Amino acid sequence: MPRQAIALSLPSPLPPLPTVPHPAASPLQTTISTTLSSTDYDAVCVPLTNPRWQERWDRLCLRPADDEGLSPAEIEAKELERELVDREADVWRRDGGLKRDEVNVSRLEETQHLIGVAAEWLELDSPDEGIRFDSELALRSELAHALYLSLPTLILPAPSLANRAHLASYARAVSNLLQLGGPSAFTNLSIRIPISDPLELIGQGPAPGAAGGMLNSAPLPPNGNANGPNEPLSNKHKRISSLSTRPTSIHQGQGLPNLALAPQGMRVASNASAASAVSAASSMMSARSGVATLAHGDPSSTWEMWDTIRAMCGYHPRLSVTLDLTNPLPPSVGALARWTAEPVKHVWLPAGSFIPNAKGYPVLSKACQAFLKGMCKQNPTFILSNTTVSRHSAGGPNAYLQYLRHITSQPISAGSASSMGKLADQIGSNEYTQGYSDYLQAPLQPLMDDLGSATYDVFERDPVKYRQYEEAVFLALQDLPADRQHVVTVVGAGRGPLVACSLRALQRSGRHASVYAVEKNANAFVTLQERKAIEWGDSVEILYGDMRTLDVPEQADIMVSELLGSFGDNELSPECLDGAMRFLKPTGISIPISYTAHLAPISSSKLHADVTAPSRAAAAAETPYVVMMSLVNLLSGEGPGASGRCGEKVQQCWQFEHPRRDLIVDSAGAPLTNSHNTRSATLLFSIPHAAQCHGLAGYFEAHLYGNIGLSTHPETAHRVSPEMFSWFPLFFPFKSPLYLPTGSELEVNVWRLCDQRGRKVWYEWCAEVYLPTLGVTAGAGTGSGIGPNGQSPALWSGSGAGGTPNGPPRMGGQASPLMDAPFSPGLPNGQGQTEGRIKIGQTSLHNPGGISSWVGL
């Protein structure tokens, strides 16, 4: 595996500010240079500002909540003092900016090999409106300083799980910050997101400890103090907004019940009310992450925080994730797999995430090792922190780096890799596919465009494909009589690799046959002429022309073709072979005999961002692309889902077989119409883990002959045609992401269509997402009125295991924002109950009428 970048979070105390003028190296420069030269680290991580910045911000923007017991004269003096401070604060709000003694990084030369961290005490999602706005202004000052220094990355503090009701404010602030500096801005923003919420893992809701810090979201101790049982509460728990010139919003503090009133009527959160706030946050978690999350074992609250932020920021290319592994990993592999499709730029790995081995050295659990190895394909920078705290008895601070270097240099075991990962590794491990990961390529138009020699050359370098073809031709020849002269015709011969395969198969089989090679590309035909003159001689007859109209001297016993596309039929193999079936004898064999197209829903932030980039035309989001998928997560599950009606993880759409003997043909033997090659499919996928669906991945399986085949199917490729790289999957994008809750079901409709005159072929696709419900009595979906908790009668009628009149039904998915919508038609389950479903989302129809994408005949 390639070397992974590892950074050290510099421990306190940090170097002082420069005391000698440029170009003399500053203390920070010297520290960075010494650290990188004396260790194996690649970068360092440093807070952009120091505590003096927080002190000034607190003085300007906060008012302590301990004014009780003052005399009237003291209160009046304090108010006069406060008025001066408020004036100074408003000047700062207008002008912004940091002071020299408030920053740790002050020179451009210091930013090489440096990752900046924004102040962790900023609360962009505070329940207090004033604190939210002042935190945004403070962060804007820090980002402006980072932009001035051309700092590559600034890591932002994590949003709080306890303040979920104000996550939209956090996301809006980040979206506005991304506009700072204009389109040429250099600094990327990376949001620090915890890998999990510990209390969610044990089924107790969001963790209140997330409200305080950037480092972790661990639960609070019994006294409610994140600083420890014997430490005073931090300023964060004692401060209120000091915006004296701002009217109090009518929405201020709505998410904080049981608030005590401070002097002058200002709201101050007490310890008791903090617990209430957490409870309120639990109840106000997004409808997308309702109680069914826990029931289905899908801890998703931290991922959903990120999903909300990046969606509100429009998948901005300068926005990424710093994944914080302070908290335990979720036990679900599917929950972890979500991050493989996200733009994870950094992985924050504190010393506390390591466990001691038998000798006291720091190591990581096997699950954490596997996760980090899987994340390596995204090439994140791993940031080690708190390595000098002496948490482990052996090894010292450098042991963490040595161990991390060791595990990130090891390939992930085949047993722990997902099917999608196995396919990506199979394709991406070849030298000829390097650099194509997640790169959008338009599918070939083989009938409209003649391929170049370089394109042929890449395809011909795949030994697996031609080994399979040679074996298939050999087996077919073995089934023919040995005492007769046979005919083998290669259609779409290109530069002749299949002709060479056929000649080798003839030699191995001991059969005798005339070999014809048909090619319509005039330039490739020159290469065929050369090979005939130099290699093949009279053993091969080459014919120039379109296989659909060309006359051949004699009919074939075996017809060989390699016209398959990434989706099997997307390069018009059915249409070409229908026209060439006149080459075959009535008992003739086509290689391939048949092929099938397959689909699966996927998530990929990168592919979606590329498809919807402003530089691309609007039609780009309705065009299928050939993609070597790497940073992609396959979303569907293995089982039948909650309703019992879902299919496999990757499902078959349709099949084509050759030759077709039942077609109506004209006098030349060509089909009269292409309508027999239209297809449609409706597929139902179970979704075990909440995710954003960005599109569909298309694969194919081909049966060449006998037990020989080709496959790009992620579940079978490594068995059928291991290490084959000729075809990448086909990506059918969605114009807008489709949110899939835990336990939901995705219904996909896809069509292969053609026009009346048979001049073009295209695909159309759409999807709908449903929440399945069990235990709904037949006809309940037609009821009217509102039931308990605002639900429709269809949701609370029923009995037995499916539900009671006073309780909820058994839901296959999460709580829906459309609970009072009528059910789609249900299916009886054989037990007197009806399996219903609630529709909660859908895409538009993509590429209607082939308006954006089609393949020409």
Automatic annotation (TrEMBL):
The keyword Lipid biosynthesis does not apply. Residues 785-835 are annotated as: Disordered. Residues 40-409 form the PRMT5 TIM barrel domain. One of its GO terms (biological process) is regulation of DNA-templated transcription. GO terms for cellular component: cytosol; nucleus. Pfam families: PRMT5, PRMT5_C, PRMT5_TIM. The record marks 459 as: Critical for specifying symmetric addition of methyl groups. The active site is at residues 562, 571. S-adenosyl-L-methionine binds at residues 456, 465-466, 519, 546-547. Keywords: Methyltransferase, S-adenosyl-L-methionine, Transferase. Residues 594-854 form the PRMT5 oligomerisation domain. The keyword Cytoplasm does not apply. Gene3D superfamilies: Divalent-metal-dependent TIM barrel enzymes, Hnrnp arginine n-methyltransferase1, Vaccinia Virus protein VP39. Residues 431-591 form the PRMT5 arginine-N-methyltransferase domain. GO terms for molecular function: protein-arginine N-methyltransferase activity. This is Methyltransferase protein. It comes from Saitozyma podzolica.
